[in-house]
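Slack export, channel: ligand-projects

TW: morning all. Re-posting the request from yesterday since it got buried. We need the structure predicted with the small molecule present, not the apo form. The ligand is flavin mononucleotide; the SMILES is in the block with the sequence. No rush, but it would help planning for next week.
GE: picking it up
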Amino acid sequence: MTNVILIIVSAFLLLAVFSFVAEGFYMHKSYLDPWNKDYYKKYNDPRTQIIAHGILAANGHNMQNWKFKYAPDNDKNFDVYLETNRLATEVDPYYTQATISQGTMFEYMALAGNKLGYDLKITLFPDGEYSRDASKEELKQKRVAHIELEKTEKQQSPLYIEMFKPDTYRVAYKKSRLSPGDMEILQSQNNFKNIRVVYIGKGEKYDKIKNYVIKSAEIESGIERIMRESIKLFRKNEREKNRYRYGFSFEGSAITGFKMHLMQALLTVFPGMSNLAAARDAFMTQTKMAAENNAGFFLIISKGNSRHQQFNAGRLYSRIQLTAHTLGLAIQPLSQAIEEYPEMKNIYDNIHKDMTEEGETILMLFRIGEPVSEVPGSMRMDVENLIEGGF
Ligand SMILES: Cc1cc2nc3c(=O)[nH]c(=O)nc-3n(C[C@H](O)[C@H](O)[C@H](O)COP(=O)(O)O)c2cc1C
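GE: finished. pasting the full token output, ligand included:
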């Protein structure tokens, strides 16, 4: 009898050790290297140094769909393209989130440039805007931006240091409303023409948004192709996180330390646990918690919906997010209701009817508040892998 127990215990221990080794608990987390404040110093080229900051920005589905090309004849110029190999086209069929994510990234680069002594002179969409349903060919041909670095005085911005903090907090926020002072500071970040920022902290509109957030998540979680797109992007252990360095992981749900390694070990040995039903449950639980626990919602609304405006909405989102950090606040986009696939059309139309004027588009919807806990950083690719043709 003792022998049988001994064998069972040994087998269990062996399986436990095997699963932790298989998930890679001992590995260096290179997917977090770019969050190191000195990471950019590995590079001498100021363009690479600046891009190394840009890639820390929030971006849709953590696809990091940024591609940079250096001018062969001028070491102060570079071009930005939308990377067509990393697109989440089921949720973002018209590349709206992908384009907003070019703007979030640019704002980080602009801040880094100022700190390092460069102004970033930007020409947006120098080959013309890509169309709403652009082919991959069109996306490859039309640059998002041409950027020239111009030497200037080094400037200190209180937002610089905030870039090294995680962007998206998916934990509960305290419910106390924002103070008028905080509101004013956040609103003052908007100096973009034809874009307005709206804060909704209570009342009928608040309840409506809360309902849209939950209803849209219910719709999304019932669409198999979209859930499969997300599951495909989930990196279930350290090996996968180090290998791909984009997409989602447990860090995004603020799960860290031993608990994270335990869950990763289980998923490594029993990959079937990462199935549709589990993904739907996790998504709905997080969304309901997010809808209930916040100090209000923000909308970034633009007149029209051009690529320029999408890009600028991204810039503004980054500014608001970094400024929120300086005020002890955090944010999380809740984008489902403003996504543009057919099943979401009703919700999309209704939220626009309720929240916008004729001809306006909601480009970002996010919650804000004081987070109850800190969250870890999420995966980032190495800057070297985002620059075409070497750096
Ligand atoms: C345009 C856009 C849409 C986003 N939509 C959502 C969303 O619906 N839900 C969510 O939790 N995060 C959303 N995010 C946040 C990204 O998922 C997040 O930035 C990315 O996973 C990287 O994580 P990090 O921001 O913590 O570094 C969005 C970000 C952007 C820029």
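GE: first-pass observations. The chain has a mean pLDDT of 95. The beta strands are 66-70, 77-82, 118-124, 145-151, 195-200, 297-303, 330-333, 360-369, 387-388.
TW: perfect, thank you
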